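Weekly structure sync, notes
Attendees: PL (lead), two postdocs, one rotation student
Agenda item 3: pending single-chain targets
PL asked that the sequence for the first pending target be pasted directly into the notes so everyone works from the same version. It is reproduced below exactly as submitted, 642 residues in total.
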Amino acid sequence: TMYGVSRTASADGSTMVSHSDDGAGDSDSRLSYVPPARHKAGSMRDIYPTIDEYPKFIGDAFGKTFLPLPGQALTKPIGQIPQVEATHGYYLNGYAIQNDCELSFGESTASAVFRADAVGTPNGTALLAIEELSHLAAERVCTAREAVQLMGDLAVQYGFFGPDGGAGEMLVVGDPDEVFVFHILSDPTARSAIWAAQRVPEGEVMVAANHFVIREVDLDDADRFLGSPHMHRVALQHGLWDGRGKLDFTAAFSLGEYGNKYYSGRRMWDGFRRFAPSVALPPAYNSTDPWSGLKESRPYPFSVPPDAPLALTDLLAAHRSHYEGTSFDMTRGVAAGPFGSPDRYAVPGTPGDTKRGAWERSVAIYRAAFAWIAQAGGSADRGRKQDSAVVDRDSAAASGAVALQKLLPDPPPEETGALRRGDRGDGCGCRSKIWFGPADPATTVFVPLSVCAGPPPEQYTRGGPGKVDRESAYWAHRYTQNLAQVRYSAMIVDIRAHSLEWEEQGAALALQIGALQCGGGAPGQGQAASPPPDALQRLRGDSAPSLRRQIERHAAAVLASTWALTDDLVGKYADGGEAAPRAGLERRQAVAVSNLGYSSEWLAAAGFDSGPARIEGHIAAEATPGWLERQQLLGRTEPAGA
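Predicted structure, written out during the meeting:
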């Protein structure tokens, strides 16, 4: 699921783009930092394959996170393209997240009518997937408009292949001024690509969830649309468009929703009903064909003006949604189990699969590898208002991390001394923030990170499947999510309080990130431009190392606190009970334990009343005065000596 918020639709004047990676148990959740670099004239840039499972890459091309471990073979490139003279630094996790001049990305896969396979695979003819396209854009340009044009041009030239047997792809791409939505799929030759991009109008927010959303494309309106000029010819030749009116990109090139009806549409409805409830869009849509109902019915617009300017907290809440409080609330009903869990494990292909039916597809999902919200630009004053609104809810939380902080060594100068800036002349991207949350968004803590600080904290660069890693943020939050299944309805209250506390403290740290401003420079024709000497000297001074130390302290504190939370949850909710402090006692039995039992609704659904008959008084505590006499009158016992 991805959201895109235009500059004038946000509370602080920043653009916001987001992404949730709804992987599986073998996902690679590790973050990495690719430093800026200069390259020899005439050199080539290796292109690598897409690998979905852990490890997604082995080598040094994408930062230190993916350096080989003993016994690991290096990932081999599948081709090359010409390199540029200079490249920007950026964060990535499969897809690029944000670069050092505030170019930001979010992703969502979508079905598509044409497919291609990667060079190096049987019958493979296409060189570029969405991961490498986003990397190339992050390395070479600074604006969203440049990025979508570059990615489209490269894909047309070298060929595009998608995941899941050839699916299409979507990106939401933002810079401090504009947000674009980018759609791409292979073309019928399997050697090129079809693509379109549409700008999110000022004052509006867009929502997409595994389904194309761009409709009528008007390439004559260059301010709003960009795209491959041959898309109309291809659509006509293959009977995907009748040639009348403007080409509906989604109707022509989408195959509809994945898996089941409402797989995408319900999440789109949820985003719009949160951001603009006054629009009152329908949660359902009619179609005789569930595979194409969303694309045919067109129930949702490309974007809407939000009812109120959107803050970071609005996007955090949206990414944590299981439709709570609506008729689709996944914490209710028999499927939620006795303790209101919204998580529904996959059924297709399992022994119990009946080949019919499906679960609702929530926004937050148990199998998520990570989610992020990338902010770019924004007024410093307006940013303080937004972040302070989070911090001021509990001023103690803003200073509570001090006890958990440790003095960390300064980072190596080579990791922070090469900070770069981009083309706009208004900073090195230090105003921008990445709010990153590993594992399920509903139970994670989103922490603020900055490309200007260099490599991310180590806790976010480790963690593979199958083995718990106590030094991994991914595993701490994944452990919490799985533990919550013991008694979700009670534990989620404590988990949300924990997340809020640390995200408030993160907001205080984000104020410092936003206050770090950097020097100017000249435009560089879509390549990284070097900062002036005085700005570079300032960047190599105290600001970046100090920023990185603060980010690392915060990350270490969040990790320690999350593992402590898991112990607290077991202690509090062990054996179906709830332990609470007992007032007035300081020594033994300082807690009172109450049995939480089950809800009456779930007991009724489980047929509890039809179970073995209960015998009153079997437990001594239930034998109230007069119990024996009452039983004798009912003929249930014999008088003594009879």
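Discussion points:
- The two ends are 75 Å apart (CA to CA).
- The first helix runs from residue 130 to 140.
Action: rotation student to compare against the earlier draft before next sync.
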